[in-house]
Amino acid sequence: MAKVRIEPAGIDLDIRAGQTVFDAAISAGMTWPTICYGQARCTACALRVVDGRQNAGPIEAQERDALKQMAARRRRNTMRDTRLACRMTVSGDLTVEKPGVAQQAGSFDRPEQRRSIQES
């Protein structure tokens, strides 16, 4: 099992072999920005790989096409280190940056997280 650190939220996510980052996040009770819910069409789930890039799975054709369209919309030649969470699998630990990711209320992993919400 690999661990993905999601910044700026500071969340650690466990991912099984073959599971996408998006699917793992949803299964763990997180909210992840999306419009197409894993169809590689909207690119709203796009993240930036900050560390451990060598542990990101290969980019397949559908993701590559979506990233090319995203680069064209943003008038960039490439989207270096950008991946779609709905398509990216991992083979080892890495850190990604994706604003808007959050733990849903009631789905906390650690007791101190539950206490901090209850005390608020």
Secondary structure elements and their pairing?
Blueprint: E1 2-7, E2 11-15, H1 21-27, E3 30-31, E4 46-51, H2 61-73, E5 82-84, E6 94-97, E7 102-103, H3 111-119
Parallel strand pairs: 1-6
Antiparallel strand pairs: 1-2, 3-7, 4-5, 4-6
Instruction: Report, as a whole number of angstroms, the end-to-end distance.
Output: 33 Å
CATH superfamily grouping: Beta-grasp domain
Q: Helix-strand pattern, N to C?
A: EEHEEHEEEH
Count of helical regions: 3
Give the C-alpha Rg: 15 Å
Tally of structural domains: 1
Average pLDDT, rounded to a whole number, is: 88
Report low-confidence residues grouped into runs of 5 or more. Answer: 107-120
Shape call: globular
Number of strands: 7
Largest sheet: 5 strands, mixed
Class in CATH? Alpha Beta
Which CATH architecture would you pick? Roll
User: What is the CATH topology descriptor?
Assistant: Ubiquitin-like (UB roll)
Beta strand %: 15-25%
How helical, in percent, are the residues?
A: 10-25%
Q: What structural category characterises the helix and strand content?
A: alpha+beta
| Strand arrangement in the largest pleated sheet | 2-1-6-4-5
